[in-house]
């Protein structure tokens, strides 16, 4: 029993080490500054290891881990109670790539979505997650995820004044 | 074409700070340590290593019985109450410590409220520190006597509180620090607050300037009665001139308005008599 638990935390540890950059990006898309994103990652990693034995099936490690990070991020936002402005988000990005330059308004619009809607968009389009998995991460049911997805797309469309998906 | 999917490039270009790896590694290390100490508590036979389990609930759990009794009374001023402020448990090789510490809130005199709460905090800290020191001392003694740490004696400390009076005018409560080693001792600390004036009630407020005589007369009389009823009871001589009785007088205000004087074990009677209370009737 003890051994299994230890193995479990080893697996979680390996996953975290391998995917720490993904976890950081996810956190950053909520906190919008690196210091707080590091805090969120730190707290998430700590909780994940301490609770590693609560992960029932190791196959679900990604959704499980993302859920922890999303929860921590949302907690962070709640605590901050302020909407972080997105002004500085794109400063360090090279503009040579025309495709990227075209994407900036879209990316910025995504960042302005209300956190729950943003979560769905980030997980779906940036993390390529299935809607079922997004439901697991956000602890909601599939139809809620679908509703949020459609709502996000509509809000984005309104913000950008154009069709998002052609 | 999917414009959102395209903007993923931007998402992926979020700069990764250099410290990320060390932050992650230190969080992992901290968590692993935490897990280990947890395992030790679950397996108490590992007595060689000190095992620490800390439970800290910062939430405010209001005392139900008290809250109800207060809310029933139409109170004009603020609602003063005693709440559980701190629950703490510590399990070590040489002792078990459990603290259920109160705090007061809703007292109009904020300075007094703060002072009492700080005082309670300091007292709790002292209790914890004292427990650790005592364990150390016990260990040292064992080594001196050439015994092994396995023979370490165990003591328990249990701190809890009790509300004695919760009318809309007076708030009286006691903190009991019960320590068991070979014997059990309970050290009491009383707080009495007049909610009208927002001040702590002194014994002079309660019984007047000649309180010593009032108390002494009443207690002497009560001792006589008690011994008459139970010939095996025994008390030390109580005298209004015996300074030490009045130095740290512990009392609370009963709901009927009477003052109740309380003595720790061994203070006014031989220790087997336990805690002793005397209600001073006016």
Automatic annotation (TrEMBL), chain A:
Classification via Pfam families: Sigma70_r2 (PF04542), Sigma70_r4_2 (PF08281)
Alphabetized InterPro entries for the sequence: RNA_pol_sigma-70-like, RNA_pol_sigma-70_dom, RNA_pol_sigma70_r2, RNA_pol_sigma70_r4_t2, RNA_pol_sigma_r2, RNA_pol_sigma_r3/r4-like, WH-like_DNA-bd_sf
Keyword Transcription: yes
GO biological process terms on file: DNA-templated transcription initiation
GO molecular function, one term: sigma factor activity
Keyword Repeat: no
Cross-referenced Gene3D superfamilies: 1.10.1740.10, Winged helix-like DNA-binding domain superfamily/Winged helix DNA-binding domain
Annotated ranges, domain RNA polymerase sigma-70 region: 16-82
Domain of life per record: Bacteria
Domain RNA polymerase sigma factor 70 region 4 type: 106-154
Keywords: Sigma factor, Transcription, Transcription regulation
Family listed: Belongs to the sigma-70 factor family. ECF subfamily.
Name the UniProt record assigns to this protein: RNA polymerase sigma factor SigV
Organism from which the protein derives: Anaeromicropila herbilytica
Gene from which this protein is expressed: sigV
TrEMBL record, chain B:
Sorted UniProt keywords: Membrane, Transmembrane, Transmembrane helix
Pfam hit, one: PdaC
Coiled coil (residue ranges): none
Domain DUF3298: 208-281
Lineage top rank: taxon: Bacteria
Record field: transmembrane: 40-60
Domain Deacetylase PdaC intervals: 89-178
Protein name per UniProt: Anti-sigma-V factor RsiV
Organism lineage: Bacteria, Bacillati, Bacillota, Clostridia, Lachnospirales
């Amino acid at each position: 029993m003890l051994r299994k638990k230890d193995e479990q935390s080893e697996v979680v540890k390996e996953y975290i080490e391998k995917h720490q950059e993904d976890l950081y990006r996810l956190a950053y898309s909520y906190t919008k500054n690196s210091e707080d994103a590091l805090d969120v990652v730190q707290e998430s990693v700590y909780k994940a290891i301490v609770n590693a034995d609560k992960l029932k099936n190791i196959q679900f490690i990604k959704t499980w881990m993302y859920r922890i990070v999303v929860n921590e991020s949302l907690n962070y936002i709640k605590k901050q109670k302020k909407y972080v402005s997105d002004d500085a988000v794109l400063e360090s990005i090279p503009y040579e790539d025309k495709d990227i330059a075209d994407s900036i308004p879209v990316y910025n619009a995504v960042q302005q979505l209300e956190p729950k809607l943003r979560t769905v968009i980030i997980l779906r389009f940036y993390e390529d997650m299935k809607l079922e998995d997004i439901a697991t991460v956000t602890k909601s049911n599939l139809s809620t995820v679908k509703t949020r997805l459609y709502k996000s797309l509509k809000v984005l469309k309104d913000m950008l004044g154009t069709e998002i998906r052609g | 074409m999917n414009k959102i999917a395209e903007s993923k490039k931007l998402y992926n270009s979020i700069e990764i700070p250099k410290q990320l790896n060390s932050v992650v590694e230190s969080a992992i290390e901290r968590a692993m340590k935490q897990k280990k100490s947890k395992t030790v508590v679950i397996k108490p036979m590992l007595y060689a290593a000190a095992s620490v389990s800390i439970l800290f609930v910062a939430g405010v759990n209001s005392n139900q019985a008290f809250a109800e009794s207060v809310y029933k009374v139409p109170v004009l001023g603020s609602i003063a109450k005693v709440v559980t402020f701190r629950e703490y448990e510590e399990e070590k090789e040489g002792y078990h410590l459990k603290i259920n510490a109160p705090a007061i809130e809703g007292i109009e005199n904020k300075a007094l409220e703060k002072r009492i709460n700080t005082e309670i905090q300091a007292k709790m800290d002292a209790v914890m520190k004292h427990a650790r020191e005592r364990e150390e001392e016990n260990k040292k003694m064992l080594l001196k006597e050439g015994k092994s740490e396995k023979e370490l004696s165990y003591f328990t400390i249990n701190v809890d509180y009790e509300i004695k009076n919760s009318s809309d005018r007076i708030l009286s409560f006691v903190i009991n620090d019960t320590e068991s080693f070979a014997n059990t001792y309970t050290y009491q600390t009383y707080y009495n607050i007049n909610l009208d004036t927002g001040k702590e009630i002194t014994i002079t407020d309660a019984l007047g300037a000649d309180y010593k005589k009032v108390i002494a007369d009443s207690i002497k009389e009560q001792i006589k009665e008690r011994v008459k009823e139970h010939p095996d009871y025994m008390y030390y001589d109580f005298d209004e001139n015996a300074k030490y009785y009045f130095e740290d007088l512990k009392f609370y205000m009963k709901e009927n308005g009477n003052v109740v004087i309380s003595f720790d074990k061994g203070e006014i009677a031989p220790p087997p008599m336990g805690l002793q209370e005397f209600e001073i009737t006016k």
